[in-house]
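REVIEWER CHECKLIST
Item 1: Sequence provided? yes
Item 2: Single chain? yes
Item 3: Sequence as submitted:
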Amino acid sequence: MAQDWAKKVYNSQAWIDLRKTLIAERGSRCEHCGRVIPDTKDVIADHIVELTPDNVSDPMLSLNQNNVQLLCPDCHNLKHHRFSHNSQSVYIVYGSPCAGKKTYVRHAMFRGDIMLELDVLYSAISGCVLHDKPDNVKQVVFHARDAILDAIATRLGNWTTAYVIGGYPAKGQRESLAKRLGAKLMFIDTNKAECLARADTLGPFASQMKKYVEKWWSAFEP
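Item 4: Structure as written out by the authors:
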């Protein structure tokens, strides 16, 4: 239920018309899980950047169609952590380089979830583009990764879902990490040929990434 300060938006004709327009344009489908929602009255128009008492009067935010996503009730409850108090889930998302692990997680996660991935960490710490991993910052990157893993393992903070992304070709390694983190394993099952084809599109990093793909598949233990 909307807070009293937000009702002036959600009860307005402008908001009602915007919701109808978005459903007509995008269809009666959840934009998070992809589920078709049979009854349009169950389609929830949800602000991506959430409304607050400070910004609710700004129509460029409250009535901006680019700031609104259509969700099913289940995904809306998940986003706002309803019916899951004190529940924090961890997933180890593993598979070959160029399998699409980050793409999957970015689609699945909500604002405020955690995504831990070495390439992204390298980029954040070094300022270099993705896939450019200067060796002289390696120790710092791995130290930061381990500190974040510790925070996830101890459930530090109020996040709901954490995604730990990596290759983890060795069965024992990933199962040991899953036990330590209290995590579920999620395999991104993209075949070797497709991973190599994707690696080949990475410009100056193509050759190195194809070597990583080959190495992963030679070490993979189902």
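Item 5: Key structural point noted by reviewer: Residues 90 and 183 are 5 Å apart (CA to CA).
Item 6: Recommendation: ____
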